[in-house]
Amino acid sequence: MTDDIITKLAAQIDELHFAENLPVEIDGFALKKIFAPDGDKFIFFTCTDDEIHCALTTYFHTETNEFKVRQRIGLTEFCLTKFFTQDFAHFKELLDAELINTIKNLRTLRNGKLNDFLREKKIDTWTYGSELPATLEGFELFIKPAAPVEVTNGSFIVVNYADFALDSDFVLYFNVYSDEFSGEARINGAPNVTYEFDAKTLDDLTDKLKRNLANELQNIRQCSIAATSST
Question: Which of 119, 184, 128 lies closest to 157 in space, CA to CA?
Fold first, then answer.
């Protein structure tokens, strides 16, 4: 990020009195003002609830020349498109109007909720899903099938095993558009697609989880530790 961009943003922050009157806590989320570059982003502030492993970040992205809001549930992050804008004053207006409700909605999302698509797949009566262990291979069952979390593009997280200390996890998604389950590993924060859990039905998914889940978590842990040791 260039010094010119940083200088311009700093001037706009002062001119708009940006984030001056925000409280130190919003609905249990601690606010931290950063106002500093981070790679190709300029971070304005974050709102974090470490207890539930959720956060919201406001920033300027030089790659797209846009102001954005990114939210995190566990280790899964995604942008909220309703905040996309290239106009700083408009971004401030959006935050003034929507920030508190967005944070409250983030807490609600974390609690999970079944919808008609997932009920049609019988997620709510999935025996194997209800019997998943609270911990497996040192990973915590962070998101359970009984309380799936909606993310983006029609996808729901139905299973999430996470090791927050390693910044690594395994996520099982269901997408309402493709009507398919799929898996993704995250190793030291970097996503790694796996095809071992692709399935159309819960019966097929159950078989694949029984065969592959423990080994997948073992592999994630081994790769995470190896990567950490090599740095």
Answer: 184
Q: Tokens 């690594």 label which residue?
A: 168
Which residue pairs from 58-64 have beta carbons closer than 8 angstroms and sit at least 24 positions apart in sequence? 58/83, 58/95, 60/5, 60/9, 62/1, 62/5
pTM for the model stands at 0.91
CA distance 28 to 51: 10
Cα dihedral 145, 215, 206, 121 in deg (nearest 10): 40
Q: What are phi and psi of 18, to 5 degrees?
A: -65, 125
Q: In which band, very low, low, confident or very high, does the pLDDT at 231 lie, cut at 50, 70 and 90?
A: low
Cite the beta strand spans of the chain per DSSP E: 25-26, 29-38, 41-49, 54-61, 66-73, 76-79, 135-136, 139-143, 149-150, 155-163, 168-175, 180-187, 190-199
> Among residues of the chain, what percentage have pLDDT more than 70?
99
CA 163/CA 159 separation, integer angstroms = 14
pLDDT digits (tens, 9 = 90+) for 123-146: 999 999 999 999 999 999 999 999
Bridging pattern class, strands 190-199 and 29-38: unpaired
For residue 92, pLDDT over 90 is answered with: yes
Token digits of residue 185:
């590993």
Cβ-contact 141, 133 below 8 angstroms: yes
- Asked whether the CA dihedral 204, 202, 139, 226 is positive or negative, the reply is positive
230: Cβ contacts below 8 Å, ≥ 6 apart: none
Structure-derived torsion over alpha carbons of residues 75, 111, 100, 31, reported in degrees to the nearest 10 = -40
